[in-house]
Amino acid sequence: MNSYAWVVALPFIGTALMPLMKLGGKRAESFFANLICFGTAVFALTLIPTIREGEVAIVEWIPGLVKFTAFTDGLSIFLTTVAACIGALIALYSVEYMNEEKDLLRYWAMFTLFVGGMIGLALTANLLMLYVFWEVVGLTSYALIGYYYNDPKAARAGLKAFLTTRLGDVGLLVGILALYFSMEPHTFNFLEIAEAIEAGEISGNILAIAAFGMLLGAMGKSAQAPLHVWLADAMEAPTTISALIHAATMVNAGVYLMARTYPIFHTVPGWANTVLLVGAITAFLTATLALVEPDLKRVLAYSTVSQLGYMFAAVGAGSIFAAKFHLINHALFKALLFLCAGAVIHHLHGVRNMYEMGGGVGRQMKFTGTCYLIGTLSLAGIPIFNGFWSKDLVIGATLEAGNVLGAALLVLAAVLTVIYSFRAYYLVFCGTSDKHLHDPGVVMKIPLGLLAIGALVSWLGVGFFSTKMHDSGLEVHAMSVGELLHHTVTSVALLLSLGAVALGLLIYWSVKDSGKALEKAAPTLANILKAGYGIESIYLTVFYGTREIGKSILSAIDEYVLEKGINQGLASLSLGAGKAGKVMHPGDVSYNVVGIITGMLLVLIVMFLAV
Amino acid sequence: MADTIMGLILLIPIIGALGVLFVNPSRVRAFSGGTAAVVTVLSLWLTFLQWGNAPIEVSWPWIEGLGIDFSFRIDGLSTIAMVAASALTALAIAFMPHEYKSKEVEQPSFYGWMMVFLAAMNGVAMAANTIQFYLFWEALLIPSTAMLAFWGDREDRGKIALKYFVYTHVGAVLILLAILWVFTVKGVTDIYAFREALADVDPSILKVLVWLFVLGFGFKLAMFPFHSWLPDTYEAAPLPAAIAMSGGMMGVGIYGIIRFVFTPFPVEIISQLSVPIMTFALITLYYGGIMAFAQKNLRRFLAYSSMSQMGYVLFGIGSAHGLGIGGAAFHIINHGVAKVLLFMVVAVIIYTTGKKSIDEISGLCTRMPVTAFCASVGALSLCGCPPLSGFQSEWMIFAGVASSGNTLFTVVAIAGAVLTSAYALSFVRYAFFGRPMQGAENIREVPLRILAPMLILALAAIIVGVWPAPFVEWVSGALGSLQLGI
Q1: Minimum distance, in Å, between the CA of residue A181 and any CA atom of chain B
Q2: What is the largest CA-CA distance in chain B?
């Protein structure tokens, strides 16, 4: 087996063998899971030198229909590396963080299954396999959000996440099947499909269905508006899972899909602009929600959605590199922020409300505070931290694409990002506290430290990323660090992003806590934001409304039309017609027969109208 | 060899049904479970013998005046239906917990009827001519009605049994009409000779014939608006019978519709049929799904969910595409496994808590983690989530619908999976997650002998989902040998 096969198979082997580790207790489970995750990370790293154009075949899954083929280009390999490496770091962190949980087996089984699913998703060049892995990571996300299943909120959030993403997946599967059947001979192979599209062999309609269908799927997975409602609730998961699945990896799958399909779909009228606007609107909309949110993890969740919006906008603007660069940077600093938040919440015994935390955590958890600050500076896009560079590239790309509305929304979102991210830091870490807190142990510090270093320096790898991506046949301009500096300093976007940061800082200095300030200045607006613009209530209405339709209308059809109306009503008519009938047929039989005959007449009418 | 096995598959459960009366009542369950297990092994053996070969046939002269033989024939499609029916019936009997001290069900004759039921299902799948098919199809009704009427869980079980009987019997009569037309006009009873016999029939007559078959099987598949027997039956049927019905009998219904509608009729007729069948599929899928979502009673919930799943099956066959019909055939196995698993879970809930309504239970996962795991696997498989088996047949069905090029049907069929997820996972959420219900501290996980059949099914759902290759080969081989014109 080569590295490609190993990197996909190893996590699944881990999942399959995990139940055996129950024999060795918690330590064995954690040790084995880490072994698997670090092994996977090593294999993933060995893939980087093999980055090239094309694909490798690994194994036939359904004979003649589905073969596992892996992409070997930068887009796939870098996502694989991010998933495997951050997965390994978080696995290490989990050893101490999750140590007090009773049921670790479930956690680790789903953890490794997720890593495998995410890597499979990133690598596969077969669209049906992509869908399979797409659903597998959705399944693990569902299972891990509901990890604390006795908490009704967690149970509810898991179901909500599953259903919302599934709604998007309808589009994804429709898109995949439309492409499959438009090919002769039918195939799920992405490269063959891409070739056919480039050769103009697939009709515009099919292409439009596929393009917008897949966009819907990506919006579900990456929590883009209006399908963003599940991610904030998903914060009921253990914080390690929030960091891994709901910040650093799975939610990037949508961005990956858009970047992957951009070359084949960008000619579809309106598609690229839709992607851009979906991203820009989401970035702005969810940034406003973060302004008033009292729950630390939910603030981070909204910021994740907002940053994913930036990546969508970048893809829509045609800059796959900006999207991918921001994806990697965001994965690092957001995982860092979540893990720091997790350490704080852990020590505060599960308190997530920033007002209840009482502030002053930074004094006592110096290491954690410093790491969190680095993450905050990156998220806010303060110069030289990694978030700054990629955010600047994204805004620049949107400007170049000529979408002023999109660029304006992104700049506004950048202002808001500064305000809400510093607000969270201020509320949690600044001030004084009489609580006795201490930094986490060394096992938890290692991942924090590594991620913090990553958030500081990952932008220096720009040359490496872009060259590798360029070399593997992607439409990416190979750009050295010097060029990045030059490009950044000379672009209009720099002015905008620096202006946004300055404005954001100014507002932050003057109000500190945007939530309280907004409540005082504009209570109605604050309430609207707290209600998430009422988008969630629409979904709830549909969800419970469906059940009500079943309870009322359809039950009435069953009860009154089919049972009482047709079966019994017509039977009593026929009974009234003559007592002889009653003697010959007991009432029950005849009412059923009459009902059935009426039903058949109905069907026969339909069939002759239709045929 | 094969003919002996075919004979044994029918004879063993019939002898078993009589034998039940002579066995010590305390052993009767083990005895009948063992009998069903032997039948399962035999049907697997038969599958193995038939795999990749021509259909195996055996016949004896029967009604010589009319030229009708008593003959059995098995091909790939038969083996799928037989293995599903036998294995699920065996598990249904094996599962029956001792704790369930229902006097009636412990009566030996109940198991006798179960054996007859099993024999009839296999008889349907093996019948080589239409007369025999009809005979076994009707024979299926007798044990199921008897179990419902004598051992039903509801006071008005007599009424429900009657309703079940009348509904499915009318369906059978429609099938009989079509069969008799072909017999009297064309003189053909051999199912394999149907296609040739129908080749030169006037299209307008073919249309009537095909609708007789579709409606006839539609009753068994609880197609809207003929579903009204289903919720009552599933609610009232004694649990082992309900389990066998939901897995085995539904599968036999799918078998019938593939055998009689999609094999013999010419392509033109079938493709004309496509849109109307998919329309009924759509209504059945959503009607059943929304009703399942609205149910409080656990067993009615499963009944409506079965109806909704048959909507998928109708979509698959209505697509008139190889993948769609393959998916429908594959769904015999996958829906059977998932639904029987969920039925067992519901049975366990009813035994341990004594509650029958979803409103009265919650947080059971704390006390019954293994059952909760099985419930999750069953529910996720039902909503077509990979890597579980339900996905494998559902995507084939969706692909079939997509091949028709009708975007509307494709979208609504696939969106049906969201509805399925909503009701199936809501069930898991309310029953197993959330705060433990009152009195939960007295609830214990059921013992291993009850968990074992559930774990076997859960494992089957995972294995078929992760490594579908051999099963897809089984299904595609089965359909390939039918030489569908599509």
Answers
A1: 6
A2: 70
Q: For residue A95, give both structure tokens.
A: 């050893």
Asked whether the bond before B13 is cis by omega within 30 degrees of 0, the reply is no
Q: Calculate the dihedral angle through the C-alpha atoms of A293, A322, A281, B419, rounding to the nearest 10 degrees.
A: -80
What are the residues whose beta carbons fall under 8 Å from the beta carbon of A15, sequence distance 6 or more?
A109, A112, A113, A116
* B117-126 average pLDDT score: 94
Write out pLDDT tens, residues B406-454. Answer: 889 999 999 999 999 999 999 999 999 999 988 888 888 888 888 999 9
Question: How far is residue A194 from each of residues A69, A123, A262, A324, measured CA to CA in Å?
Answer: 15, 16, 10, 20
Q: How far is CA B198 from CA B126, B206, B265, in A?
A: 22, 8, 7
The answer to whether the CB atoms of A555 and B294 lie below 8 A apart is yes
Q: Kindly state whether A180 is in contact with chain B, defined as any CB-CB distance less than 8 angstroms.
A: yes
The pLDDT confidence band at residue A580, using thresholds 50, 70 and 90, is very low
**Does residue B369 have a cis bond before it (omega within 30 degrees)?**
no
Window A:268-287, CB contacts with B under 8 Å: none
Query: Is residue B447 classed as helix, strand or coil in its secondary structure?
Result: coil
Which comes out higher in pLDDT, residue B234 or A597? B234
Asked if A181 has any chain B CB less than 8 Å from its own CB, the reply is yes
Q: Can the peptide bond before residue A185 be classed as cis, meaning omega within 30 degrees of 0?
A: yes
Which residue in A has a C-alpha nearest to residue B395's C-alpha? A173
Q: Are B393 and B334 in contact (CB under 8 A)?
A: yes
Is B106 an 8 Å CB contact of chain A? no
Q: What's the confidence (pLDDT) of residue A571?
A: 59
Name the average pLDDT for chain B.
89
How many CB pairs lie under 8 A apart between chains A and B?
A: 167
Q: Do B429 and A155 touch (CB under 8 A)?
A: yes
Q: CB of B153 within 8 A of CB of B232?
A: no
Mean pLDDT of chain A, nearest integer: 89
Rounded CA-CA distance A551/A547 in Å is: 6
pLDDT digits (tens, 9 = 90+) for B233-250: 999 888 888 989 988 888
Q: Does A166 sit within 8 Å of B421, measured CB to CB?
A: yes
Q: In 3-state terms, what secondary structure has residue A57?
A: strand
pLDDT at A345: 92
The confidence score (pLDDT) of residue B97 equals 63
ipTM, two decimals, is: 0.92
What CA–CA distance (Å, rounded) separates B80 from B171?
Answer: 23
